Amino acid sequence: MCWTGDGRHSSQMVAVPSHARSAAAPTRTTIGPLDLTLLAVANGLLVVGMWVRHGGLQELATTAGRFTAEGQLTALLGTYLILIQLILMARSPWLEQRFGMDGLAKAHKWVGFSAVWLLVGHGVLTTIGYAMGDQQSFIGEAWTLLTTYPYVLMATAGMALFVAVGVSSVRAVRRRVSYETWYGIHLYAYLAVALAFAHQLAVGTDFSSDPLARIYWITLYAVTALLILTFRVGQPIRVNLRHRLRVAQVVQESPDVLSVYVTGRELGRLPVRAGQYFTWRFLARDGWWRAHPYSLSAAPNGQFLRLTVKALGDGSSAMWDLTPGTRIFVEGPYGVLTGARRTRQRSLLIAGGIGITPLRALLEELPAPPNGLTLLYRASSWDDVVFGAELDELMAQRGAAVHYLVGRRGSAELPEDPLAPDMLLGLVPDVRRRDVFLCGPAPMMAAAVASLAALGVPPAQVHAERFEY
Amino acid sequence: MAPRRGLIALVLTAIALVLLLNFKTPQMTVGFGPTAVVAAPPTAGLAPTAPSSPPPTAGPTTTPAVAGASVPPPASSSTPRSPAAASGQATGQVSETPFGPVQVRISYANGKITDVIAVQVPSDRFRSQAIAAYAVPILRGEALQAQSAQIDTVSGATYTSEGYAMSLQSALDQAHL
């Protein structure tokens, strides 16, 4: 989902000249996504090499040794993946601009489940291996490990926390718990990392006798910690101290949609551009603990920022009561759905429902060659259409074309899927030669992406970012 | 509401954390590394904790027990001159295993082994130390019982057992027992 503006204030807003802001243009360096992926894989191989160097393969000779050695390997790889997890979510712009937050989140999900399984495997395999060596029962050996091996109890507590994080993220569970609970449980992953660290150095076969391995391992942790401190802690503090954002006005856009206008200091120097989003935390008496990602619904103009929200859910309905002057703490800007992704002169924007918000901002900023800027606005009813007057204004000023595709699919109003390939081609005959920016509910996005593929639009021209938390 | 639940979670977490951090295993007091085994709970047969072998008898004794397994005494420094030497000490040769060296020193009196001390045991990793701590007393008991190096392998400590037996044999050879 994405989020959204206000018809009554549209003329005033659109009148603000939209400088093509390039402050946040992603740096084009020679390091691409593939290089970073290779770096991660190379370090993974280094970790496996460490295990081999310390006799991992020789240990496979006996049954007990095999369990022990495999327990050791799963520990190393599981822990390495946990560090990757932390780095993926460190909000580093280097990673975000290359993979997109949705790409990172997807990777985070799979790497996370793998890591948890590996760590559970480590606990079980090592205990079995040691139990066989000591001719003990599994339970007896587990007790020995917990009570006599240094820091193993702490590490086991850490593993239990990792398992809790994993379980809370399983789809069936995730649906049943609130975002805040899920987020709160996720914070325990940091504690788990800390709890598990000591036993690695104290009883970790690879580190107790190899200073080089020890230095390498600690360096991995240090780099991870540095990234988190810089981008998850330092950067937001710096941005908020500098810009001191406040609520200026709350405006109703439709029965259930509102816009928040935000002012602050030196907004012109905030490195954000149309299509990006912040994570917003409104420091009101009620709801200060909630932080939610919302796209900007107007191109940044140095005067104000605007976010537009479909305020229905538990947290967002409180936003109706925001009073002017309320302080805001933001994290960001994030997002790669910007003009920097453009490869063509002409653009097509496809919005679904409240997904109009970032596209509404982009509509202001993207170049508008003659007949080269088109918006398809899909909504299930006219009540859900927002920014009507603003869009009219933009069309007139910029020569943009807007097609409203309103109604339930299959209804008399809309007998055919308006995003089917032939319909798309009818509306935008030159779609293959355009960049396509998409935002909307996941099923609609999937349908649109499939149609574009069927029409032969090169994937590099299709820009979509999913906002699912 | 969420903030209250968060506060409760925070307090519970802090309590759990304090309890966890206060849990100490015996080895933790020493810290990491190969010295840990030295301060492990006194197990019979491990070098520095075994004052049970006073070297009062005249004769070819080695230097007094060195404090710390990591500083091995000069190997085979004690060679009794007469085969009939009734009592004394002898240090076996270092026997290398994949997990580290094993070396034992025997005390004997009237042609009988009175004690076996492990001067060095594999200690480069915690697991090895744990194995040694459990295997060495068993091996010592076996050696004292058998009065020879013909001792059974302790299961789960194959390498340590073999190294122990080899070093023991070397010590016995030196003592001409």
Describe this structure in words.
The complex is a heterodimer of chains A (469) and B (177). In chain A, helix 7 (152-169) runs antiparallel to helix 9. Chain A contains 15 helices and 11 strands. The termini of chain A are close together. Chain A has 469 residues and is α/β, with parallel strands linked by helices. Chain A folds into 3 domains: 33-239; 244-334, Elongation Factor Tu (Ef-tu), domain 3 (Beta Barrel); 339-464, 3-Layer(aba) Sandwich (Rossmann fold). Chain B is an alpha+beta fold and 177 residues long. Chain B has a single domain, classed as Alpha-Beta Complex (Sufe protein. Chain: A). Chain B is 33% helix and 15% strand. Chain B contains 3 helices and 4 strands. In chain B, strands 1, 2, 3 and 4 form a 4-stranded antiparallel sheet that branches. In chain B, helix 2 crosses helix 3 (158-174). The longest helix of chain B has 21 residues, at 2-22. Chain B starts with a helix and ends with a helix.
Write the layout of secondary structure elements.
The complex is a heterodimer of chains A (469) and B (177).
Chain A: H1 10-15, H2 33-53, H3 56-59, H4 63-88, H5 93-134, H6 138-148, H7 152-169, H8 171-176, H9 179-203, H10 205-208, H11 211-243, E1 246-254, E2 257-263, E3 277-282, E4 292-295, E5 305-310, E6 328-334, E7 346-352, H12 356-365, E8 373-379, H13 388-398, E9 401-406, H14 421-427, E10 434-439, H15 442-454, E11 462-464
Helix pairs in contact in A: 2-4, 4-5, 4-11, 5-6, 5-7, 7-9
Chain B: H1 2-22, E1 88-91, E2 95-97, E3 100-109, E4 112-120, H2 126-146, H3 158-174
Helix pairs in contact in B: 2-3
In short:
The complex is a heterodimer of chains A (469) and B (177). With 469 residues, chain A is of the alpha/beta class.
